[in-house]
Every structure is written in C-alpha cells, then in structure tokens.
Write a structure and sequence with these properties.
about 60% helix; five-stranded antiparallel sheet; ARM-like; single chain; about 1050 residues; mainly alpha
C-alpha cells in the first residue's frame, strides 16, 4: 500500500495538500485489490492479523452502531471491540463519524460489516491515511526495512533488526510489500494495453490519405481537409480548451459512396462528431460513433468503396501512425476516463441556451426557408437542407442534387440518434467506467425493459421528396405557420384526415420540424387549436421516435401543464398522450418531477359504475380512463409506484375496479399489477378489498383482462392474507380454469404464476387437488416457454411439500421432465427446478428414477453456476438426494471433483450458499470414507473460518457440519487447534432453538478432547449448558448434559491428580 498509493493512485489536487482519490478506472482497480487483500489477510495470516498498529488508522465512516453485532460493546452511538491491546485500549473504536482501527483482524471484520459500502470505506481510509504502512509498523521500522533489498526474505530482515519481538512486524512488512508489487504489476498490465495516438501520428496518417484523393483509378476518397489550417507548436489544430480533452484535430472527409464525414482525431482514438465543419464553431464536439484505433479503420467501416479499393500493400509500405504504450494516461475525455458526467438537466440547460442564441440570430438576419427550427438545432441538428446545398459544390444534374438533399436528411436523423445515445455507446464500446447514466436513472424499477431504452433510430428509405404525403404535410405546416386562429383550426382538421398512424407520415412530420409547431400550439389560449394539436400528438406519439423527440424538446412539460386546465376534453387528450410518451425511463421520470403523478391521480376521482350517466359524468369517466392509461405507463418505474400510492391513487383505482367496462378495467388492473411489485402497494390493495374484485374479473370473457388480474394476484399472493382471500372468494377454481387456455402463453404464464404463489399455503394446495391441478401442471412441463415453466415448476415445488403429492408427481411421469430441465440456462427456472427435484427426492421411488436419469450429477453440476441463488438451491436439493440415494457414499465419490467443488464453495461470501453447503457436508460426512476425503481436502479450517458469522441459519448448519466432521480420526483435536471451540460457545447466545441444539451436539463431540474442554471451561460454557439441560427438548438435554459430564470428569481427574501429590 506504499508504492501503489504514491505512484499508481490518481489523486486530485487541493490547496490544503490533502487531495482525494479520483474516480477513475485505475483507482477502482487499485481499491478492489486492496479490499481483496484486507478481506483475505485475517484468514491467511491469523498471527500477523492480530498485530497491533503503532498508530490507529482513523477515517470518517458511514457505519453506525446498529451495523455492529456481537463481539462489540455498544453504548448509544459509540462502539468498542471486545479485543484490546496490552494497554487495555480497544482495537476498534467507533465515535461517529470517526472510526479507529488498530489491527488487520478488526479491519477485516469492519470491511465485512460494511457489506455494499466496502469500497467507500477503503477509499475513505486511504484518503485520510496517505501512508498507512508508517501507521501500521511505525516510521523507524518501516524506514529500516525500506532500505533493504526488495528480494530479501523474512528471516534475513528479522535477523538484521536483531529483535525477536519484531519478527511479526518483519513478516507483516513483507506481506505488505508483496501485495504492493502484485497490485502494481496488475495495474501495469491494464495500462499497457491502452494505446495513445499523438499529433505526429495524426498528421502522418492524414497526409497519406490525402494522396489517395487524387483523380484516377486509385481514387478512394473525394476530398479530405482540416477544419483549421492553423497548427499549434505541439502539432494540434484544435482550440486550447479542446486540447485539454486530448483532441488533436478535426477533419471533413467526403467518401466516394457515402455522405460527408465529420471526424475528431484524439489521443484516445478516432471518431465521428456532430458536424464540425469549420474553425470557430462552438458546438458539435460530442462523439456520435464508436472510437476506432485509427482513421483508416473508421473509413473502412463507413465506406464500402474505400474498404474495397484501398491498396493495402502500398498503404502498409508507408509510415503508419505511431502508437506507443503508456504507463499513466491523464484523463483525455471526461466522460470516458472517469470524470463526472454532466446530468441530463445540465445538458438540456446548455442546449436550450444555445437554442435561444440561435433563435436570436435568425430573427435578426432572417430565416432560411428550409432551415430547421432552433429547438431541433439544439439537439445537434445543425445541418439544414438549404445550407447544406449551398455549401456543397453545384451538381451537374438535378438527380445528384436530390441525392445530396436526401443524404443530408439522413445525416440529420443519424446525428439526432447518436446525440441521444452517445454516453451509452461509449460505455459499451470503450468499456470505460464513466459510461454510467445519472443516479436517477439507475434507481428505476427492474420491471422496465432495456429494449425500450435502445430503440434504433428509424429513417425513411428512398427518395422521400417523391412521396405525395411529404408535399402535402409540408404545405399544411406552411399554413400553420402563417395562418390565423381559424386557418390553424381548419389546417389541423385537414391533418386529421391523413393516415397519422402510418410511420411514414409520423417521421415526415418530425423531419419537417412539425413537432415544435404542434407543441407551440399548446401555449395558445385558443382551445380549438389545443385540442387539434393534442389529437395529432396523441396519434403520432405511438411512434417511439416521436415520443423521444417530444421529451427531448421539453414538450412533455407543456402536455403535463394542460392537466391543470378545466376543459375535460383537453385533460383527456393530454393524459392519453402522456400514456403514449411515457414508455421510456426519462419520460416517466420527467412526469414525476413535474408533479404529473399527483395531477393524473386527481383525474381518477369519478363514479364509474352508475346505471345511467349524464353527459358530464361520461366525460369524467373518459378523463379517468385516460388518466389510468397514463398511470399505467408511468407505473413501470419504482419511484412512480410509490408516488402513485402517496398521492392516494390505490383507493381511487379500487373504486374504478368496480366499473363494468373492459376498456376501463384493463388499464386499472394493469396499473395495479405493476404497483403490486411493491410491498406497500400490495398491503394497500389487500386492505382496500380489491382482491374480491380481481377474483370477480377472472370470470370475464376478455383474455387480456383475465391475464392482468392473474398477474396482479400472482404479485399480491406474496402475502399470506391475500392467499387466504383468494381461496375465500373462490378464486382458485377460476385460476385452474385458465389453464385450459394453453394457446395464450401470456395468460398461461400469469395463471400458473398465481397458482404457484397461492400454493405456498397448504390449505390452497388441498383445494387445488380437488380440481386435479397437479396432473395438469405435470402435463405443462414440456413444450412451454421459460416464463411458463418457471411458474409451473415453482408450483410443483410447493405441491411436493406434501408427502402424498410427491408420489403423485412420480406416477404422472413428472420426474423425467424435471430432470431434463436441469440442463437449462434460465437462472429463475434452475432455482425452482432444483427445489422441486429436492422435494421429490425424499420419496424413495422418485429418488430411484432421479438416480437412473443421472439427476444427482446434473444437480451437482449446478454448483458451478455463477448465480448464488442457483448454487444455494442446488446444494439444498443435494441434501435429500444424498440422504435417500442407494449407496449414497459410493455415488458421491463417483462424481469426479464433486467434493472439491463443495469445499470450494465454503469460500463464498453469500450466507445462503454457505448454509446450504454446510447442510450438504452434514449429509456427506455421514459416510466415513467421504468424511476422510473431505478431511484430507481441508474441510476443518474452512469450517472454522465461518464460525465468526452472526447469521443464525448459517450457524445452525455449520454446527451440524462440525458435529458430523468430528467423527473421524483426530478431527476433534484439529478443530481445537484451529480455534473453532471458542467461537462455537458464542453460538449459545443466539435466541434460535435450532442453533442451540446443533451447537450442543458439536460441543458434545468436541468435548471428548481434553484440550477442547479446557477452552470451553475458560469461555464459561457451563452456565448456558446448565440452562439447556432444563429445556423441554430431550435431545438438547442429552447433548448438553453429556458435554457438562465431560467437563466435570476432567475437573475431577485434575483434582484427584493434585490431591495425590
């Protein structure tokens, strides 16, 4: 931690001289390596880990007193460790917000307690302790050893110190030195893979390519030029403020078969920009493509003619761009090398400021007939049709001119797409750490599809000038720009006659700048114009590209504002438009930030189930329906779900749930099933009596409504009271009836999911059996999509908890398809399959079939799956398989590498995995030969390392594993030597009865060794054992009394020995 911090770490500069660690990929790797060293040090070097630091490491921590469990004295907000140094000072002391740590063992425990904030704690510690080696060893000792040769081993160093008491210090220093070298080596490997370009390389490559622009057969490019002819002394041609970002020059290249390319040549690579055409432009620097290693590679990817005709041999013979390995690269591009990105809000603010400036210029100097509106220009749409044509050389024919116009339009669309996704592309293609989206986006619900965020940019193919819709729409927008209120209203009516649901019309409206005109009409006081504009926006906003443009141009703010107006037609149209637009995360977030959720919830206040409605009430119901549609779209965000609940939306949705109309019920139930993923919303749905209405609507003839109702029950049935209510209102029979609609896979998935969750209650399983559900579910184990199989297998796992059902599954032929599913890749499905196989394995006949199908080997192989959930589920399934298998010991030994894999998972950091593996070891260790094998493989120290846990589930199975592992050779003595006895005694402080029993069994086995008895007596085990002897559980009484008996016998033997002398 010495050289790596002083030479490899990247620190910020500060006037006080105490900088902070920058948020860069290199620092991230450094912190992870140090964290890994600290986590492993205590277990790998227990003696050195107990060494007390010369000075405590002190920093501001995020931990609080409640994060500390056992082994600490907690007083209000202060915490002290039980472990103390020779002077009685605690080795760990927390006085919020400061924490003081004086040994590696306590440092390792603190990092473990930090859980998800481990890296933050390491960062804070290193920032406030810039030279931790000095604090750990002392300045004089560290200085002495630093002068020694780097290859000197521990013994020679200790000899030179000539103080046996400092032997541990010498070893500790060399461990730190070794770790330092390993970190530096790894960082050097990562850095050495990065290649940096320089101005000389750029100039060399450009000059070579200029030679290929000549006329003739060898021509591969039309033209290539710099945007600036001025060259700085360092060889760069970019403004000084862009050179800071590593940019060398900007190029304008015209290929023979593609549109003009605007390119940035930087030290990080070569990429397309938004269109820097000449010197002095203050925008267009944003990257719109991948980053390429050199200019030739970029041109090959953009121009097939260039890639096909370039003479590779001639070009290769020239001097190629020089690249050199670098040891340390300062940040070139803030968004790629770790500098914090600007938020979307900041980018929008800057964009709109530029738009206003552009608008002012247009007013002063007149606006080009074909020029794009300022709002479009603000999103990198800098090239206009007229302007592009003026700048290009005149063409010899009208056809070429049309081709140029089309190419310019295509470029505009491509630039718009790239500007909206540049950050995402940089993170995926360059694999840098700075590609993360703002924190607000990462907190959105997991139910949101990633596909909605990655829609490709749609562009019209062919010559759109020849489309009749193009000229018709262009003419109508001219009228909208120049006409009065009446003309505008009539023009909007004429536009409604167009096929606005056709994608061609939608994209033409967008490309002509029509969206801004329609959005501007929402600012007028003329209601007719607002209604006409919203009717058009409502239709064209079904297109995702249009929806994005509305959000990016701040149009959503105007639509949300309309929700406050008294006109009901306007509110209904605005809500329905929001429903179409809010199909991606940024739109949903914008609605919430504009207080749109509360405004939409207010629209739901109506009475929808009256026998006869007045005209005004019908409008209220329609407004409510549109409001629910908007909430349905918004509810795909976790924060929006909570906002809907806080705004009082759940009770109002419950009232609308009584509507007799399917067009109202579908969005209502859809919104409820989205909200039901949150526990607070599930409780509200249950307490407001909506389960009865959901069950009632399962009887509907509308399959979409049935699907949403079943999905809502699936999510709500996590609560036991909800499962009881579904049974009470006879919903179980309705769910069973939906299994007959196997052709509708979405409905089938929802129905099987609801059956799965409802079957968690054994009362519901008994009710399901009246309708032969088990046989039906077994029949669905084949030829179904994964979303159906996950639910079917989950339900079978719950059904198999009842012994009679296990035999039924086997008789119906369900074991073979279950075993076949073990070869799948879907993690959720694997978790449920292993649970079902494990439950069925407790039946002898089923276990015979599982063995014949090689099912145990398949389950065992799932321990290699990277998912902790799959690992733990597979380990739990192995327990009944081993217990009930014929010749279980031989079967386990026949699995090559199986026992090694089991012991490897004892190094996992997941408590559920550890508990399940300990349970599996309990079964394995019942065979003496297997116990001997795992003993040789080192099971004793691995189990001992887990004894510091405070998780009662893990404690229970860990103690059971130790109990059975004691029954071989000298394992009892080995457990005592590696320090397993004292931590086990602390298990007796748990309030879990299962932990008490398993710990008593383990202590009983360990107490057969006299040395272990001495440790038990020293750790005051007798008192808790005496209390357990008064337990109502006979087995606990037996093991506790047996342990006390061994302690007493040793005491009497020692007493007799003393008296005999």
């Amino acid at each position: 931690m010495g050289l790596s911090l002083t030479k490899a770490a990247q620190w910020t500069t500060a006037s006080s001289g105490t900088g902070k660690l920058e948020f860069t990929p290199m620092n991230e790797s450094l912190l992870k390596e140090i964290l890994r060293f600290v986590e492993r040090f205590s277990s790998q070097h227990p003696q050195e880990a107990e060494h007390v630091f010369e000075e405590p490491l002190q920093w501001r921590t995020t931990l609080v007193a409640s994060d500390f469990k056992t082994d600490y004295d907690i007083s209000d907000s202060a915490v002290q460790s039980h472990e103390k140094d020779s002077e009685g000072l605690p080795l760990l002391q927390l006085s919020p917000p400061a924490v003081y740590v004086r040994s590696f063992s306590q440092l390792s425990k603190l990092v473990h307690l930090a859980d998800g904030k481990k890296l933050e704690e390491v960062r804070a510690c290193l920032e406030e302790n810039r030279d931790p080696v000095v604090k750990i060893l002392g300045r004089s000792f560290a200085t002495t050893l630093e002068r020694e040769d780097a290859q000197t081993d521990a013994l020679s160093v200790v000899d030179k110190v000539k103080d046996p008491a400092k032997e541990v210090k010498g070893k500790l220093f060399l461990f730190l030195q070794k770790m330092d070298k390993q970190i530096l080596s790894k960082l050097l490997e990562e850095i050495s893979e990065k290649v940096s370009l320089d101005p000389a390389a750029a100039k060399n490559e450009v000059e070579l390519l200029k030679q290929l622009c000549s006329d003739g057969e060898k021509r591969v490019l039309k033209s290539l030029r710099y945007t600036s002819e001025f060259e700085f002394s360092n060889g760069c041609r970019t403004p000084l403020w862009r050179q800071v970002h590593g940019e060398i020059c900007y190029l304008v290249i015209e290929p023979c078969d593609a549109e003009t390319l605007y390119i940035t040549y930087s030290t990080a690579g070569v990429f397309l920009n938004e269109g820097i055409k000449q010197e002095g432009e203050e925008s267009g620097y944003e990257r719109t493509s991948d980053v390429y290693a050199d200019l030739v590679t970029l041109l090959k990817s953009r121009s097939p003619h260039f890639a096909k005709n370039i003479n590779k041999q001639d070009f290769a013979a020239q001097e190629l761009p020089s690249t050199h390995k670098i040891q340390h690269v300062e940040s070139v591009d803030g968004e790629e090398q770790g500098q914090p990105q600007r938020s979307y809000e900041q980018q929008e603010k800057n964009v709109h400021e530029k738009a206003k400036q552009q608008h002012t210029v247009n007013k002063a100097g007149g606006r080009n007939k074909n020029e794009m509106c300022p709002r479009w220009s603000s999103f990198a749409l800098l090239s206009t049709f007229g302007k592009a044509e003026e700048e290009e050389p005149s063409k010899s024919s009208g056809e070429e001119k049309k081709k140029l116009t089309l190419g310019t339009r295509s470029k505009i669309k491509a630039e718009f797409s790239a500007s909206s996704s540049a950050v995402r592309q940089s993170s995926q293609k360059m694999k840098t750490s700075a590609g993360a989206m703002p924190g607000e986006l990462t907190s959105e619900s997991s139910t949101e599809s990633e596909e909605e965020e990655e829609q490709p940019e749609r562009r019209l193919e062919g010559d759109i000038d020849r489309l009749p819709e193009y000229w018709q729409i262009q003419k109508l927008f001219r009228y909208l720009k120049a006409g009065n209120q009446t003309t505008t209203a009539l023009t909007l009516c004429a536009m409604m006659d167009l096929n606005l649901m056709q994608e061609t019309c939608q994209l033409i409206i967008r490309d002509l700048g029509g969206l801004e005109i329609l959005l501007n009409l929402l600012d007028t006081i003329e209601v007719r114009c607002k209604i006409g504009s919203l009717k058009i926006l409502r239709k064209i906003s079904h297109n995702v590209q249009i929806s994005r443009t509305i959000v990016y141009t701040s149009g959503l703010q105007k639509i949300v504002t309309i929700l406050d107006l008294p006109d009901k037609d306007l509110k209904a149209l605005a809500a329905e438009t929001i429903a179409n637009v809010a199909r991606f995360r940024r739109a949903r977030r914008t609605v919430r930030k504009l207080n749109g959720i509360k405004k939409l919830v207010k629209l739901l206040d109506c009475v929808p189930n009256l026998a006869k409605l007045t005209e005004n009430q019908e409008k209220d119901v329609e407004v409510a329906r549109c409001g629910v549609l908007a909430l349905w779209s918004c509810s795909k965000s976790r924060k929006n779900k909570e906002a809907i609940r806080k705004a009082g939306g759940i009770p109002l949705l419950g009232r609308l749930l009584k509507s007799p109309h399917a067009n109202m019920l579908i969005p209502v139930v859809g919104t409820l099933q989205e909200c039901a993923s949150e526990e607070s919303c599930r409780i509200a749905i249950q307490t407001k009596g909506m389960i009865k209405d959901l069950v009632k609507n399962l009887r509907s003839d509308n399959e979409e409504l049935q699907m949403h109702c079943a999905s809502a029950i699936f999510k709500c049935a996590e609560e036991e009271q909800t499962r009881d209510l579904v049974r009470k209102y006879k919903g179980l029979q309705q769910l069973v009836s939906l299994l007959g609609k196997a052709d509708n896979k979405q409905l089938l998935a929802a129905a099987t999911g609801a059956i799965w969750k409802c079957s968690i209650s054994t009362e519901n399983v008994a009710e399901f059996q009246k309708y032969n559900v088990l046989q039906t579910l077994v029949g669905l184990l084949t030829y179904q999509p994964d979303e159906v199989l996950v639910n079917v297998v989950g339900a079978l796992g719950e059904f198999a908890q009842i012994p009679a059902n296990k035999a039924t599954i086997g008789k119906c032929g369900g074991i073979k398809p279950l075993v076949n599913l073990l070869t799948g890749t879907d993690q959720a499905l694997l978790v449920n399959v292993t649970k079902a196989v494990g439950a069925c394995a407790t039946d002898k006949d089923n276990m015979t079939i599982i063995q014949q199908l090689d099912g145990v080997r398949l389950v065992w192989s799932l321990l290699k799956n990277p998912s902790p959930d799959v690992q733990s589920s597979a380990a739990w399934a192995l327990c009944p398989c081993i217990e009930n298998a014929k010749d279980a010991g031989e079967m386990v030994r026949s699995l090559v590498g199986g026992l090694t894999l089991i012991l490897y998972l004892l190094k996992s950091t997941n408590n559920e995995v550890l508990a399940s593996i300990c349970a599996a070891i309990t079964k394995i260790a019942r065979d003496e030969d297997n116990l001997a094998v795992i003993t040789d493989l080192g099971v004793i120290p691995l189990l001992t390392k887990l004894t510091d846990t405070t998780d009662d589930r893990l404690r229970h199975h860990l103690a059971e594993a130790i109990h059975y592992c004691c029954m071989w050779g000298s394992n009892r003595e080995s457990f005592g030597k590696v320090g397993a006895v004292a931590p086990l005694v602390r298990f007796l402080k748990s309030k879990d009865a299962a932990v008490h029993l398993s710990t008593a069994k383990a202590l009983y086995q360990l107490s057969w060794d006299p040395n272990n008895v001495i440790i038990m007596h020293a750790t005051k085990v007798v008192k808790p054992l005496l209390q357990m002897m008064r337990s109502d559980v006979e087995e606990l009484q037996e093991y506790a009394s047996g342990c006390v008996r061994h302690i007493r016998k040793l005491f009497l033997a020692n007493l007799y020995h003393c008296l005999s002398y």
